[in-house]
Amino acid sequence: MEPIQASLKKWMRENKNFQENFNHIKKELLRDPEISNILSNNPEFTSSDIDKNLMKLYEYRSQSKNCADCPSLDKCINMLPGYTPQVLVEGKDVHLTYDKCKKKIQRDEQQKKETLVKSLYMPKDILEASIDDLDHHELDRHDAIREVLSYVQSIGTNKAEKGLYFYGPFGVGKTYFLGAIANELADRNISSMLIYMPEFVREMKSSLKDDSVNTKIEYFKKVQVLMIDDIGAESLSAWFRDEILGSILQYRMMERLPVFFSSNYSLKQLEQHLATSNRGDTDLVKAGRIIERIKQVSKEVPLFGLNRRDL
Ligand code: ADP
Ligand code: MG
């Protein structure tokens, strides 16, 4: 470093404009409360030490600290957007390090969460649902909330294996419950896949054309937590019921992987519904088999109360 410093000094001596500029910057810097604070904490710093570290001090002063001067992360004014400078004086040297600012930490956490909660066709309010917002005021919801809390508490213990099957009328918040659980799981680094059943059926049907059905089935079999929203919302073909849903549930049952559901039907009612395929054929045995699997991977929980869409 020395030769550069020396030649810089020589050059500075020769260049009056530069010298003037330098002095101007130095004066301004010394007037700055943050910089004078640093210097007063380091009284051994001489004027030539300041000269030597002027660019570092200048850089420190020009950067926004802890987001103070940035309206948002996207409009961050720092050299390294999303990073805030820390100054460290060691002997006669000033060091600058850059740490992630609070806004960037927040954004990164949010993005991580988004990669953990995967979904197919889920509205934004559901993806932002939180367990803290589950409304405790309605008596009708207490059992369901208790089940959610008890599930959450059991995560990571060997008691945790079954998901929950929420059923109840339209609009009471069943899907919201699923979203809230998915976000809670993401906070614990567990990934989940939340799918809206009618779209799931369409997705699988259209995958038949490009042969990606098996890849998708594999994915739904193996994702850490699977959530099927609105099962029973439409009548299924025997193919979908037995080959797709049946095989995914069979796998998850064997591997003890949880599945969450929401439905307008209780399991008893769903059995009737699944017994009739969309062509009108009836097969109670096959429907019973699906219901058995659902019971193995989840616990049935009623959810009643007010229709929140009318609130
Ligand atoms: P369901 O699936 O039972 O038909 P939803 O979960 O879709 O009902 O809820 C209906 C509406 O009410 C949605 O817009 C949802 O975001 C909202 N909602 C449900 N529960 C809550 C809650 N605890 N806090 C805020 N909004 C909620
Ligand atoms: Mg719903």
TrEMBL record:
Residues 160-289 form the AAA+ ATPase domain. InterPro entries: AAA+_ATPase, DnaA_dom, DnaI_N, P-loop_NTPase. CDD domains: AAA. It comes from Aquibacillus rhizosphaerae. This is Primosomal protein DnaI. NCBIfam families: PRK08939.1. Pfam families: Bac_DnaA, DnaI_N. The gene is dnaI.
